């Protein structure tokens, strides 16, 4: 960019949420700049991120609306059933997509697949520019816009600034927006496993004393017809030893937790570890600023809703900003940002509370709680109206939804 260049929106952070928002803005004709500190070649490398994400039904509609879903759909595994199991109890909760319609409850997509699709999508928008690697050195906001200065001295001018730069957001910190946070005594080990029996599009949430052990269906890969992504929650003190185990030792530990769901299981690919916590920004919007994704909130992965929360941020912010733009208003004007912050606050607080409560309830081996929650799972399983309500919530199909989440045009 030249020092005189100006855009309507500057997004700092080119991860899954940042690039999805950029595609939404650019698809509506907004001149958009994405600034990311990580080089694209690094982000697209196979070892960059071993995670897979649950894409709820409502989030899939949003990704369809911005043009991403057709680029990743053939590498997404549908979730047609979910089993929730507590330890070794014979009592469980079973969700079946047929109870709420003919659509899957969601899909599992590897993050690297989403990232490749987003980079391909971004290259197709003439009004979208992607600067990476680039580091923000300074931010100056005034009555008319925002100037972002990069470390190489380049000055980028825009009407609106969006922080999409993750839970340790440098933009949020630089602009003085504090956070509330809680660190869980848990770390998530993420890896991929191959198993001898097909998963039949079933996701399993197996609660163990250290935390949930999630088995998430993946599509077939070359020479690996039956694969699942694993999110294995463990006590932090044990994680370094588990990661350091040889293949035989790690396979034994994995099999002890995986159970006999899909027959013999062996790990495949690298192992990653992510400390877990709860965090939310004290404000989701400020003067010419909006926060989205992990820059605004981080929740426990117990229900697989973290990325879905960020995708709904994208749909809500894009609707607020694009509506203002169509009226001929400044895209950084405060009314649109206030509307966005108020709209997203309830969803963020509700999911934070639910995931935190579920983790505290299930991640222990206290006998009275264990008995109560197992009876609770069995009771919900026998109440079809309540099950349908829970499923529709998990699908992102209830509440005050943005147009994109309803399958409508932005």
Distance between the termini: 29 Å
Estimated share of beta-strand residues: 25-35%
Low-confidence stretches: none
CATH topology of the domain at 9-77 and 108-181 and 278-362 and 396-406: FAD/NAD(P)-binding domain
> Which structural class do the helices and strands define?
alpha+beta
CATH evolutionary superfamily of the domain at 9-77 and 108-181 and 278-362 and 396-406? FAD/NAD(P)-binding domain
Overall body shape: globular
Share of helical residues = 25-40%
Compute the CA-based radius of gyration: 21 Å
**CATH top level class name of the domain at 9-77 and 108-181 and 278-362 and 396-406:** Alpha Beta
The biggest beta sheet reads: 8 strands, mixed
Spatial strand arrangement across the major sheet: 6-5-14-15-16-13-17-20
Number of strands: 20
The number of helices is 12
Q: Average pLDDT across residues?
A: 94
CATH architecture of the domain at 9-77 and 108-181 and 278-362 and 396-406: 3-Layer(bba) Sandwich
